[in-house]
Design brief:
The complex is a heterotrimer of chains A (267), B (158) and C (259). Chain A is an alpha/beta fold and 267 residues long. Chain A contains ten helices and ten strands. Chain A has a six-stranded mixed β-sheet with strand order 6-7-8-3-9-10, with helices on both faces. A four-stranded antiparallel β-sheet of chain A has the order 2-1-4-5, covered by helices on one side. Chain C has one domain. Classes of the chains: A alpha/beta (267), B alpha/beta (158), C mainly alpha (259).
Chain lengths: 267, 158, 259
């Protein structure tokens, strides 16, 4: 296999004093769908923001298609972002535009295509997510699952080489969840792109992805193919896959001794 | 809302705003006050200008012909020097008389010009020599009181 | 005591930091304005939302302010037998002060708050981030058109306010009370100078337009992306705009109308 599309090398990131990512190294090969998993608030979304260049790493390098994202100037970064697509957690559709205009937005901003061609392209993208009939609706009239599919159509409008999904399964009913999951896989293969999914929905991910990274306490805790993950004996992975309340990830937030606290409080 | 309707409304709005500006410029204010065409400056020296201010009107026979542009104190003559601009359409003889007058009893003070009979007219930058100072109410009153007092007790010991 | 001094220090540092941030933001808007002017319809759209939508409140308020000025002015002037100067009083108060200031305050609470709310909500729903990730600058696409829409609307609205106010004063003075029509207009035109009074008023309203529009877009863009954060940002827009207008008015008046 050739050079992976995205490669993180010993990346460290902190908001002020608070370290979010301590030492992360991972790679996303071309043409593959990779899931990044971990508990809530472990810095998964930050990872996507680092790849997209919205945040810069404190140490280490983020390489996307041979370019060091952290060192790019504004122009070069925007040029790179035109080849990336990011699906936000709740779609982030522009509420003052219709579904059609939302999908047409990147095309109108970045190309000089004639109106008829844009019209055709938009309808093709909407057809791909099964929402051609909803082109004239406003975002407010869509259900959560539909809004995310429209956002997906907008994300793929410019046929990006890298697709990033921030919690694409959150807050969806099981049917919409399955639809989005299948779309992610199908679009990745149809576009010949590479995809990163940041999620904590293990069961859905195991069905569609090629490779999984687990992140805990700012480090890669475990990694492997879905097959390997299912059969893993690693206690952390086991806890995550089987959704156990207590394990290497403790149920209790770090605190002093319980008995002491109670007795001390009473005294 | 379609784009054409929006454009129409914005057009109406901008047109109304510009019309209001024109209304303020032409109907409310007098654009002529500052739009004296190709003005030239003259000046006059007074012993006392009273309450005359910069931008006060300059009138001849009641007609507005210009405005006071600058007031300064002349250190050598110990007089006030009033510089004013007038429209080049208007000409004044060299023996023109400059007064500081008041419109009404308590109104604003203005510069009144009384043209004389000379053939030659004032050139830009000329100084009007014949002037009469402002009437200062306090002086008038004190004068009046002194006179009264003088009449009351003849030949005061002084 | 030490606590109070520390709080004062924090307040000053925060204020200076905020001001610097705002200046930087202003600079960015100017830099990206060129880009946004190539899509002039975006600015036209904002002119509609901040200008046309404020029209009604501005015209009605202007009329009422003019009516009140007419009544109160007449009441005072006729004591000195100077009721002919009613036009002067109404026009000068409106053109120099009330037009720009009151129109500015109304504009801040009508259009400024709406702009802050809109940009704030776009931030909450990640629309700004999404735009940025699509390699479209939110400052060029969202902020700059709203800024220029406000800057252009403000002087026009202030002029409409003043014109409407003069009309209101005329209505009360001439039509209702019976001040001589000729004297009303003639005295007004005699006293109101285009450059000195009208133009200075327009300059004031332009400055207020820049201040209000900048505060509105800045507070929206800078807000904490939660429902509470947006509502706070809206409050801050109205309060800081009002303070900025009144303070700037004082400064400009002291420079403009000294003589």
């Amino acid at each position: 296999m050739s050079e992976p599309l995205v490669r993180l090398e010993n990346v460290r990131f902190a908001y002020g004093e608070r370290a979010i990512l301590r030492d992360i190294s991972l790679s996303i090969p071309r043409g593959k769908v990779v899931a990044i998993m971990g508990g809530s608030g472990c810095g998964k979304t930050t990872l996507l923001r680092l790849i997209g260049g919205q945040e810069r790493a404190v140490a280490g390098r983020v390489m996307v298609d041979g370019e060091d994202v952290g060192r790019l100037g504004r122009e070069a970064l925007y040029a790179l972002r035109r080849r990336m697509g990011m699906l936000f957690q709740f779609g982030a559709l522009f509420t003052d535009m219709s579904v059609f205009d939302n999908v047409a937005f990147p095309l109108r901003e970045h190309t000089d295509l004639p109106a008829e061609l844009i019209n055709d392209l938009v309808l093709m993208k909407l057809h791909a997510v099964g929402l051609r009939g909803a082109a004239r609706l406003m975002p407010g009239e869509l259900s959560g699952g539909m809004a995310r599919r429209v956002a997906l159509a907008r994300t793929i409008a410019l046929d990006p080489m890298l697709l990033m999904y921030d919690e694409p399964f959150t807050g969806l009913d099981p049917i919409s969840l399955g639809v989005i999951g299948q779309l992610i896989r199908r679009l990745n293969d149809a576009l010949g792109a590479s995809s990163v999914i940041v999620t904590h929905d293990i069961q859905e991910s195991l069905q569609i992805v090629d490779y999984i990274y687990f992140i805990s306490e700012g480090r890669v805790a475990a990694e492997g193919t879905p097959e390997a993950i299912r059969n893993s004996t690693d206690p952390f992975v086991h806890q995550f896959v089987h959704a156990e309340a207590d394990g290497p990830v403790p149920f209790h937030y770090p605190a002093g001794d319980y008995a002491t606290a109670l007795v001390g409080g009473a005294a | 809302m379609s784009r054409t309707t929006m454009d129409l409304w914005v057009g109406v709005f901008v047109a109304m705003g510009i019309a209001a500006l024109f209304f303020l410029a032409l109907k409310v204010g007098s654009i002529s006050g500052s739009d004296i065409r190709s003005p030239y400056t003259l000046s006059a020296r007074f012993d006392n200008i009273g309450g005359l201010k910069v931008r006060a009107p300059v009138k001849v026979a009641g007609v507005l012909v210009g405005r006071v542009s600058e007031i300064r104190y002349d250190n050598e003559r110990f007089q006030a020097e009033v510089v004013f601009t007038v429209d080049s359409r208007y000409k004044f003889p060299t023996d023109t008389f400059a007064n500081i007058l008041t419109s009404g009893l308590l109104g604003e003070q203005y510069l009144g010009l009384d043209p004389g009979g000379e053939e030659k007219t004032l050139a830009p930058g000329d100084v009007i020599r014949k002037t009469q100072s402002a009437v200062v109410l306090e002086k008038l009153i004190s004068q009046f009181m002194f006179n009264k007092a003088a009449e009351g007790e003849p030949a005061p010991a002084k | 005591m030490v606590g109070a001094i520390r709080r004062l220090g924090a307040l000053v540092i925060n204020g200076v930091w905020q001001l610097g941030f705002m200046a930087r933001f202003f600079w960015l808007i100017l830099v990206y304005s060129g880009q946004s002017f190539t899509r002039i319809h975006l600015t036209v759209r904002e002119l509609y939302f901040s200008g046309v939508m404020s029209l009604l409140i501005i015209l009605v308020s202007g009329l009422f302010v003019g009516l009140v000025l007419g009544l109160q002015g007449y009441e005072t002037l006729q004591r000195y037998g100077a009721s002919d100067s009613l036009g002067t009083l109404v026009a000068l108060s409106l053109v120099r002060e009330l037009g720009p200031v009151v129109a500015g305050l109304l504009f801040a609470s009508r259009a400024g708050s709406a702009v802050t709310a809109e940009i704030g909500l776009m931030k909450v729903t990640e629309q700004l981030k999404a735009m940025d990730m699509m390699a479209v600058s939110p400052i060029a696409r969202v902020v700059a058109p709203r800024f220029w829409g406000g800057v252009v609307s403000m002087p026009l609205l202030a002029a409409l306010f003043s014109a409407m106010g003069v009309f209101g004063g005329w209505l009360i003075g001439v039509v209702v009370i019976g001040v001589d029509d000729g004297a009303f207009w003639a005295q007004m035109q005699d006293a109101v100078d285009f450059q000195y009074d009208v133009l200075n008023g327009v300059i004031k309203s332009c400055v207020f337009g820049v201040a209000v529009a900048l505060i509105a877009v800045f507070e929206g863009y800078d807000c904490v992306p939660t429902a509470e954060g947006v509502s706070r940002a809206i409050t801050r827009t109205v309060v800081s705009s009002a303070l900025a207008i009144l303070a700037l008015d004082f400064v400009m008046t002291s420079f403009m109308f000294r003589g």
